[in-house]
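> forwarded from #structure-qc
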């Protein structure tokens, strides 16, 4: 499975490069300016706190106590490992080893479920006039049953979408936020597909296809997705600092 995931991610990236050429990859790296990086760092900090809070709530419900400060640090380390190691889940494995597997599985599963539900509502029901009422009713029902988990997951999803919109603007996309929102949700869903190399692969492939279908161009979609990946990677660098500090403390104790 490990080699299948890596091979699938590399194959998708190769297919995107063959389709749009190397220019979108170069343009994306050049477009990662200081303003976009600072905004991505701030938004990722907020989404990290939301995710850590969700994990803490779920862990407490399962009888595991994780202080919020420790949860935020562990989540940063997890995000950095997910963004730099093959497979895109090794950071969660690291978190599970240190804090217990069941709370981490519940955290990851609940977050993806809420994101998929919200994205499905926007993508499938958005054009309908009664969509907002249906979505509001569904959100209210979920909030009554799992208020903290759903609220934290929705806030985290909003943060990821905003980083995508920042990447789109930095890459020169002139489409409106309303036009970009369904594309962002679709691309972020694709990023969770396990056939990837540290998150790269399906995200770029779906972005190229979705932007082409929307009339914005496959090359532009690939540029935005790559730039989003660059911004997301840079925004997880605090996790590298925390990971190095943790390893340093372990070496001192040894």
């Amino acid at each position: 499975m490990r080699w299948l995931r890596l091979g699938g991610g590399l194959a998708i990236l190769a297919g995107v490069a063959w389709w749009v050429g190397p220019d979108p990859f170069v343009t994306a790296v050049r477009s990662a300016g200081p303003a976009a990086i600072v905004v991505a760092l701030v938004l990722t900090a907020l989404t990290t706190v939301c995710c850590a809070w969700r994990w803490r709530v779920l862990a407490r419900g399962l009888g595991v106590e994780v202080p919020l400060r420790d949860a935020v640090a562990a989540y940063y380390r997890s995000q950095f490992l997910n963004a730099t190691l093959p497979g895109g889940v090794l950071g969660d494995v690291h978190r599970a080893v240190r804090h217990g597997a069941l709370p981490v599985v519940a955290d990851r599963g609940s977050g993806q479920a809420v994101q998929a539900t919200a994205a499905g509502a926007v993508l499938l029901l958005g054009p309908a006039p009664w969509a907002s009422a249906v979505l509001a009713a569904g959100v209210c029902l979920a909030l009554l049953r799992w208020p903290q988990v759903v609220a934290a997951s929705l806030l985290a999803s909003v943060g990821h979408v905003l980083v995508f919109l920042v990447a789109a603007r930095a890459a020169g996309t002139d489409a409106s936020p309303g036009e970009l929102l369904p594309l962002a949700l679709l691309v972020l869903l694709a990023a969770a597909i396990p056939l990837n190399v540290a998150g790269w692969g399906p995200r770029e492939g779906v972005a190229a296809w979705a932007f082409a279908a929307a009339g914005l161009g496959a090359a532009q979609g690939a540029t935005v997705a790559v730039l989003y990946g660059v911004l997301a990677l840079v925004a997880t660098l605090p996790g590298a600092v925390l990971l190095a500090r943790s390893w340093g403390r372990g070496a001192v104790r040894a």
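QC bot note: Residues 2-248 form one domain. The CA atoms of residues 40 and 49 lie 14 Å apart.
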